[in-house]
Amino acid sequence: MSLLEVENLVVEFPGRRGTLRALDGISFSIAPGEILGVVGESGAGKSLTGAAIIGLLEPPGRVASGEIRLEGQRIDHLPHEQMRHIRGRRIGAIFQDPLTSLNPLYTVGQQLVETIQTHLPVNAAEARRRAVALLKDTGIPAAEQRVDHYPHQFSGGMRQRVVIALALAAEPQLIVADEPTTALDVSIQAQIIQLLKSICKTRGAAVMLITHDMGVIAETCDRVAVMYAGRIAEIGPVHEVINHPAHPYTAGLMAAIPDMESERDELYQIDGAMPRLTAIPPGCAFNPRCPRGFHERCRTVRPELIPAGATRAACWLHDPASGVAA
Amino acid sequence: MTATPQPLVRAHDLAKTFDVSAPWLNRVIERKPRALLHAVDGVGFEIERGQTLALVGESGCGKSTVARLLVGLYAPTRGGFTFDGQDAHAAFQQRDARAMRRRIQMIFQDPYASLNPRWLVEDIVGEPLREHGLITGKAELKTRVGELLQSVGLSAQDMAKYPHQFSGGQRQRISIARALATEPEFLVCDEPTSALDVSVQAQVLNIMKRLQRERRLTYLFISHNLAVVRHVSDQVGVMYLGRLVELAGKHALFERPRHPYTRMLLDAIPKMHDTGRARTPVQGEVPNPLNPPPGCAFNPRCPHANERCRTERPQLRSIGGIRIACHAVEEGRI
Amino acid sequence: MKNPLARWLDSDVGYSFRTSPVAMAAAFIAAVCVFCSVFAGWVAPHNPFDLSTLELSDARLPPAWAPEGSAKYLLGTDDQGRDILSALIYGARISLVVGVASVLLSVVMGVALGLLAGFRGGWVDGVLMRLCDVVLSFPAILVALLIAGVGRAVFPNAPESLAFGVLILSIALTGWVQYARTVRGSTLVERNKEYVQAARVTGVSSLRIMRRHVLPNVMGPVLVLATIQVATAIITEATLSFLGVGAPPTSPSLGTLIRVGNDYLFSGEWWITIFPGIMLVLIALSVNLLGDWLRDALNPRLR
After folding, report:
1. Strand locations in A155-305 (E)
2. pLDDT band at B274, cuts 50/70/90?
3. Which residue from A68, A159, A170, B274 puts its CA 20 to 30 A from B113's CA?
4. Is the minimum CB–CB distance between C122 and chain B shorter than 8 Å?
5. What's the CATH number where B114 sits?
6. What residue ranges do the domains of chain A occupy?
7. Per the CB < 8 Å rule, is C197 touching B105?
8. Does C197 touch chain B (CB under 8 A)?
């Protein structure tokens, strides 16, 4: 059974100029212990997906329809108190900026102990022992001393390790990580990616990794979902999506990324820009920019995710009824 | 015998130190020492006309400071650079620094902060023209601004809009148009695509390469993204804690990196197509720039460090066609 | 092509205005007061300052709805036979003029000094901020009293316009500090932004950068502060007039009227003080409410 199931999730922002549909029918699932990457450019809706799952959508944003199920239990419209218990105990979160994720007024140990004691029935001494163990597991040297240090006494990479420790403190089954390595140097990025992979494998936690960096996805994830204009364009095993992209947007994205291995004079560019949420075209959202838009249906009917080789892509090219060799 | 043309930009022992000490009263009462930040500590390179030198490094390496030194936003504490044979900083100090400022321009990283939100695009792109008195009639100014916008792939009608009506990639193009207004020869680009999405980045980089070809521009390209650097540069310089550790042609650097830090950087980049390979990332982090390690700045993290590395700072020397600052390479140990 | 008013009403700020009954009511009241002040000559039934029209026999008449009142003097008369309603309207004019003028002067001084402090930094910034601290440590009324008193002593037979000038100056001299501080803070932020650096790289002079690049971007909070400060300035002026060092007695402002009426409060002639008091409250309140609304409307996070 999947750990997390998202079915036709729609997130809307009612405003005075009308209602903005930021996520338009997202569906995916995460198996226990799996690492799913959610990749997309700015405005695609990947952070919103994470926020909707943790239950931290900023008002007036709200889940308009669809279901989010954690181990079969619906969590999308839970009352505030119940969601608070789930958040932390069963779902942990890692955000982008380690500087603001930690409270500067409390020691690292105090924050860890607070999280542990909120969700687990342990006494203070046991909580502290677990906190030190967590710091050790996330690779912080001299954990017994550093547990009493304040966040500002840690460097950027160390702080992000503390944030990971905090996310894992209550032993959640799912971790939602929103751009955890974007603010870090490349060498630290590599360390944090490795830490995330190993610690989640040992603790059996699944991870939803949200990022715009395809390279990080390639190194870390088992499966990846590519988002475009509030919808999922393609989803599948990471090597398949990267090496044999079925959706023209994914293919364009992969071609536009400057590659360490090959050398080209000009980078492939997808003309135009992602449509604003207020002006999403009818039919397929990518159609105006698509080099392979071939059919009237692309302009009128929105494609669902259909099997395309080893992945699933929301593209009429792969509809066997269309009669086009993809 | 014809003399070889000298490089357009030649930097020599460029250094910039910032005084970040606590205020005087705090220093007296709390007995704190003076704190000096050696953001750039002796950097030298040459850039030929029409070429691109890329400076790469992680946070605190000083590459942004080098960029600002080369456009005259900072004055160097030591050393300097010549532009077309002329001492650039002396020129910046003079009353007619204009002549020098016309030939050197800059493109910034943040597309949202690099354009004045209260000005029309027409005024933003036209400001260098007005400031240098290059065009005086209003109609000619409008025409010229329209041409500049078109050369970066925007339309002339866009000059009547405000920056907030454009996306990040389009704003960066407006920045490029502004930088090109005075027809400069040398452009310093400080992480111009780091804040942009991948597909937009491709558009902007393609424009920059095309403009370089068409107008024989010389670029100093600052970035932390080695893949982008590989795409745009001819020469690459790797910086660490204010010093240049390796300076080589693009192919030499990417195919045969010699310096341990360069190797570590290249290794740390997530690879997209070769992900099965197990990597061991180098431990440690960039030390505090206020307190650099003695000797070679990289020695605490270097697997090849010996006693000499911990005491004596390596100089940038030419070895086998590249320039490198590493005792281990000099001594032939790696 | 929509006209500018229609476009403004359609904007976020305009929408906020349309949906805020408080803002609309406050704007209406303020507009009425301003209108009356500007066209006082036509609106007021009498001219309270024309001594020839005063009839001492009409002194201390109660408002029109009271038994001894007369319809000629709607709100009654004061001890010299002046129609209270007309005095209110002319007094409001003085209050508004003094209030707006002193705020304008404060804004000019404060913004200029704030820009200078923020842009230059270093010792200039230090000196100016210490100056702000010193000025803030004096209560505004005391400073105003001091200047007004000194002014009177130095120019005992000064013409009325000079007296008003001194009054405006004395209120402005304590009000500029908050603008200076706000603008300095915003300038420190804007100074490091890349569009300022881009202008420097182009070779634009510091003065031009301050004036043309930074200034438009720091004026936002100033507008809100200025609106609210108009109310404060009006009350300060009223206080000074009440204490006798504000508007000259020949052109009484609302504060003067309140002072004059104060003496008669206990003998039962309440209207001489109460009506000017109500008028003062109305003006100050409506301007304050407008300022509050403006601050919330311009705050991007609340939208």
Report:
1. 174-178, 206-211, 223-228, 231-237
2. low
3. A159
4. no
5. 3.40.50.300
6. 222-326
7. no
8. yes
